[in-house]
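Reviewer 2 asked us to include a model.

Predict the structure of this chain.
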Amino acid sequence: MSETTGYAEIAAHYRQQIQDGTLRPGDTMPSLRQVCEQFGVANTTANRAYRALKMEGLTLPRAGVGTVVAGPISNNIAARVRLHESTGKALGGGESSRIVEVGTVGADELVAPRLDVSPGTPVHVRRRLVSRGGVPVHISSSYYPSYVIAVTPELAEPVSTGGSRELAAERLGVAQDHVLEEVTSRMATESEKAALGLTAGDVVVTQVVRTVHLADGRVVEVAVKIAGGATILRWATSLNTQQDVG
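Predicted model (structure tokens):
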């Protein structure tokens, strides 16, 4: 990189290494002096790049060590939507998704009220395991009502669509409008422990229930995401009330 390298380019360099697994959770980041020497920049530029990574939840300060890579990270839906809009993909660098189950199930007491159906009503499920750098990050089970499957029969097949919710919204001709994400914790089931590589006897996992609404009020997806306790569930929301003015 040249002497005109900016902090954003440096941050992007390390962000990519974290996302593709070159830098793994717990690894120590290069010192600010090493960053300055490698990129030929002033300390203020290197420090600003590291501040950006910290604000994104990618790194953490550790006393006596310096800056280290944070634990596995699972982005929220807003980040996924922005990523799909810019790249056409729902997964970031270093991420992979493996479908482990597709089929029809009876809506349980968690899913049924969010899809506005009676418990036991047949709904379609797609269950997949998402990993980053080869490390399991979360299990996600997406539940779809019949009107979604009617226009997107691909969701009934065990193949990746590159953005199932986006495809369904496009076929229905109605944009995604808002999402409710409900976060809680509970004990992991044996199957969840096996999928996520959790070996302790009693393991607490984080559960995120996501209900995505279309602009016409219909629900396009209810997803239940399960992540191990070491996984950071990241939300980033702008508090700048002036950005939409004018």
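The two ends are 38 Å apart (CA to CA). Residues 27 and 68 are 5 Å apart (CA to CA). We have added this to the supplementary material.
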